[in-house]
Amino acid sequence: MKEKTESDNENLADAFKRGVDYSKRFRAFKEEVREEKNWGLRVRVTAILLTLVVGAIVGLVALSLLSAVEFFNNFWKPKIVTDFAQVEFSWNIYLGISLLVSALIAGQLLKLISDGRPRGPADLILSAQRNEPPEIKNGFLSATVAMISLSGGSSVGMFGPLMHFGGCFSYFVKKNIKLVTKLPLEVILGSGAAAAIAAVFSAPIGAAIFAHEAIIRRFGSFGAGPVIAAAFSAHWVALLLMGEATLFNITTSPEINIRTLFIAMGVGFLSAIISIIYINSVTYMPKLAKRVNIPLSFKPLIPAFFLFLISPIFPALLGHGLWTVDLALAGQFSLTFLILLILLKIFSTSFCIGFGFFGGVFAPALFLGVLVGGVVDLTLVSLDYGSSNFGILGAASCIGAVIGAPLAAVVIVFELTGSYEWSVLAMVSVVTSQQFTRAYAGRSLFDRQLSLRGIKLSDDHK
């Protein structure tokens, strides 16, 4: 009888919770309908004009931060080793100083962030989906930590922190300009994120699609205009300041036939394995860091020391790693060295992020994907099948799986290569990778981070 009563109480509690959730959703729906009535032509035109300005500012700031990172990287930038025969056991004193100073500064900044956890794209996604304001102070501090860490040589990326910064800056504008307060929060956040990606990646179309696919996660009734405008203006600023620049130096296009389609599927499958390991590693490392009984401000010193220790053998692991991309695409690495780099990159990026030597996960995913494609290329060469720069497919597959934006990944391939053939093959590899990754690691690395914090987004669970 007592067990039945407890069961009835649990059922009543569940029913009450569902009722409260339904009531909240209904009120949110009514509020959205009410706001839509105020989205007249004046508001829409103002939104386009303001997002053009915001996109240009975000693009300018993003490029400035990247230039600053490159400036400091030039003090310690190493010669990339492509084989064990090239290894010289000598440590760069300037690299050691850079790692030490940046780790110490990052540690002090971590103390200023609420709960010591740097904010990133996962928090921006949560704000957009929950219609909750982002933490501007924590967001700006997190971007600063990322840029300092990356300047010193941390094995992390830059796109994620810049994207989060763009979203926070856009919300800052929303708070201070009256007409913009009528715009949906998700559109504001998505516009800032798209601008940052468009500026640094030279892919405005892919950036706009990414914002809708990964952050906004729908095409709402307000339309995609503000996001597209922000991405366009940021890209335009990048063209004015940097000129035409592409991440991949690829001038050839593959044939589309049964052989290349199967190779693309193989690249997608291998990318899925690496992406699953990468996602699990990055999300596990913060748990390990919590068990280490060291003050928060000193934790970044641990991965900094590790990177300095291995720098003579694996200098490619330092910084964002994009210096290595062209070498891998050109087949300059030995097969054994490539495999070791893949495994060590997963560990070093996870180690740095988990212990507060903070940065993004986008560039490391790109790095891993290109190296996976390099492994496939070298294997094909050894089997006398020829080679065709399949690193571009690995990059698209890993990026699409890690950030949860497969369509954006395919479009970015087209923008960076201008090749219809590469884009078609990217569709095959990205879809293959996405199915396995989604089954074993979730929608994206960001969603997994939220899930481990006990947060389930509505579009990914019943």
Give the SSE layout:
Layout: H1 2-36, H2 41-73, H3 93-110, H4 121-130, H5 136-152, H6 159-176, H7 185-201, H8 204-216, H9 225-242, H10 258-291, H11 301-310, H12 323-329, H13 335-354, H14 362-382, H15 391-403, H16 406-417, H17 420-441, H18 445-452
Helix pairs in contact: 2-5, 2-6, 2-7, 2-9, 3-5, 3-11, 4-7, 4-18, 5-6, 6-7, 7-8, 7-9, 8-9, 8-16, 10-13, 10-14, 10-15, 10-17, 10-18, 12-14, 13-14, 14-15, 15-16, 15-17, 16-17
Task: Tag the structure with descriptive keywords.
2 domains; mainly alpha; Clc chloride channel; 462 residues
Q: Could you give the order of the helices and strands?
A: HHHHHHHHHHHHHHHHHH
Compute the number of helices.
18
Named CATH architecture of the largest domain: Orthogonal Bundle
Query: The CATH topology of the largest domain, please?
Result: Clc chloride channel
Q: Pick out the low-confidence regions.
A: none
Note the gap between the termini. Answer: 32 Å
The CATH class of the largest domain: Mainly Alpha
What's the β-strand tally? 0
Give the overall average pLDDT.
Answer: 85
Number of domains: 2
**Global structural class:** mainly alpha
Would you identify the CATH H-level superfamily of the largest domain? Clc chloride channel
Rg over CA atoms, rounded to whole Å, is: 23 Å
Tell me, what's the shape?
A: globular
Q: What is the helical fraction, as a range of percent?
A: over 70%
Largest sheet: none
Percentage of residues in strands = under 5%
Question: How is this structure best described in words?
Answer:
The longest helix has 35 residues, at 2-36. 71% of the residues lie in helices and 0% in strands. The mean pLDDT is 85. It has two domains: 41-242, Orthogonal Bundle (Clc chloride channel), CATH 1.10.3080; 258-460, Clc chloride channel (Orthogonal Bundle). With 462 residues, the chain is mainly α.
